[in-house]
Amino acid sequence: MDIIKKLAQELAIKEEQAKAAVQLIDEGNTIPFIARYRKEMTGALNDETLRNLHERLLYLRNLEEKKEQVINAITDQGKMTEDLKKKILSAETLVAVDDLYRPYRPKKQTRATKAKEKGLEPLANILLLQKTTKSMEEEAAAFVNAEKGVANAKEAIAGAKDIIAEMIADMADYRKSIRNCTMKQGSLVVKAKDEKAESVYEMYYDFREPLSKVTGYRVLAINRGEKEKFLTVKVEAPDVQIVNALNKTMVKDNLNTKALMEEAILDAYNRLIAPSIERDIRSEITEKAQEGAITVFGKNLTQLLMQPPMEGRTVLGWDPAFRTGCKLAVVDPTGKVLDTVVVYPTAPQCKVEQAKKTVHDMIKKYNVSVISVGNGTACRESEQVITELIREIPEQVAYVIVNEAGASVYSASKLATEEFPEFDVGQRSAASIARRLQDPLAELVKIEPKAIGVGQYQHDMNQKRLEEALNGVVEDCVNKVGVDLNTASVPLLSYIAGISKAVAKNIVAYREENGRFHTRKELLKVPKLGPKAFLQCAGFLRIPGGEEPLDNTSVHPESYEAATKLLNDLGYTSESIRGGGLSSLNSQIKDEKGLAENLGIGEMTLHDIIEELEKPGRDPRSEMPKPVLRTDVLEMKDLKEGMVLKGTVRNVIDFGAFVDIGVHQDGLVHISQMTDRYIKHPLEVVSVGDIIDVQVMSVDLNKKRIQLTMKIDHNK
């Protein structure tokens, strides 16, 4: 297989782009580095395309390796033919290679292998040829052998049929067409194990859907219901049609053999093919569903990580709880914890006035301007206390509900213990909730990506695949934003291209021992950070106020000479970057192509350098929607049909989006209520963190369900 050609076709890119990307990956370059600093070579392939290319490259190389193993194994058996070799080499999936290898794979004891041991293979060949003029009982008489365990002709014929059944089941072409037929015309049929049992799977207690139409989220829900012993699941195939097609292909019009061949085919299908194809199909639709869910999870995670930081604010983090009290932590604009306290405004203590006084004192003492409230247990009750306090005090304070998913995971982690050795888990959690508002990216990288809670069925996934995909998402986000080399934590640094966890620890240790970094070049003094790692990471690490102004931009050190020459040619120096007086740099350049040639760099690199010099230290997150600051609270019972509210998208799933409208219970906007045009997926319209207008359709207080629509009717 020409892997480069295949990658180019699959990803709809040019062959030279695929070739360059593969070469760069093979040389050990990271995806963020290739995407940002090797645009000329790859034709500006973005990180998402590069990750897909890398994933497919690994699969296709694995496929080629598997083909080689199979060819060698069959050749060693002396059974390789030119036709078979051609089929194996042209196979495009691992499943297709497995199908072709199936007849030659060493088998455990089966009914067919036992029949062969009894010497019945020649009888099976007579039956298979279907040319005999004798009855099969007469043919079988010659194979009766008490010593070998064949007592009579009937047993001999049964053994011959077993051999034929296994042979039919092993035929790759038949398996392929049966699999395709079942996928096109079969159905997924789900029943309840106990119809009276109450569960979240009740909608699947009597469920049937064509395999070609079943959606990913349903597959994952059904799988979980089956695992939890509420559901039974089976693939219903067009059995009669498949068996008839096999009969038509294999059975000849010979009265001596026809009925026996039909029996062998029926046995092959029912006993060997159908169960195997069912497993294949269940596995295929599950894998497809998981890939879809991982993609959605990744896109949600990107949006969450790329939320704009709330800079220059002193934030009060509020981790709500009932019995153990609400943990509070005041965090200054640099992320330093100034104070922590526990208040008890919620049940059973209900010390509301005392809590209000404590919080007001903290607001005055530390000049708190915003309260960051976790959306967990007792959030509703805490919110009530906060809004009452905001009305009563003269200070201008707002509050924001933040998604606290993973905060408890972080607060109990080794990292949190190292960061806050003197705090308990509640205090750490409150500090984390405050910092999530100040810089979501820097705080959320401390948590295992799948614990951040913006996916669906993450515990049912292939965990290795999920982890790889989400780590890739975090890596892309961190490198897109860049990090301050002198303040970044170990977790944040370890997501930078080319930096391992061990090297990240070495960077922080070097910083603690020698003070702040003054230039990017100093990184080469860090143990285990050699020239190769420096090449990958340098462009993503910033040094505000350092000796070299370019060190606070995403211009790579390999382009410093070109950037300095560009500035000099236009009458500037690198010091001009600090003053921010280069905002009109692009308008001064008349011939970009000629200038790029003169500087010895590519046009794309020149374009990136100019963009960076115009806005040094630009944070791509600043273009994202800002969090909704609230000063008052609604309760679910306050909601009326037709109300229009502003909400924040908290999670996007296959069938809709959950939106926080400030009543603690997120409302659901079903995919059908997002837009008047047809869409395949909610991500075409909304993303996590989006601020949107929604209208209340219905409220169910008992089930705590809120139905929302984005198709607002102002006449309601």
From TrEMBL:
BP GO annotations: nucleobase-containing compound metabolic process; translation
Entries under InterPro entries matching the protein: HHH_9 (IPR041692), NA-bd_OB-fold (IPR012340), Ribos_protein_bS1-like (IPR050437), RNaseH-like_sf (IPR012337), RuvA_2-like (IPR010994), S1_domain (IPR003029), S1_Tex (IPR044146), Tex-like_central_region (IPR055179)
GO molecular function annotations of the record: mRNA binding; structural constituent of ribosome
SMART domains found in the cross-reference section: S1 (SM00316), YqgFc (SM00732)
Domain S1 motif: 642-711
Entries under PROSITE patterns matching the protein: S1
Gene Ontology cellular-component annotations: cytoplasm
One Pfam family cited in the UniProt record for this chain: S1
Record's protein name: RNA-binding transcriptional accessory protein
Organism: Anaerobutyricum hallii
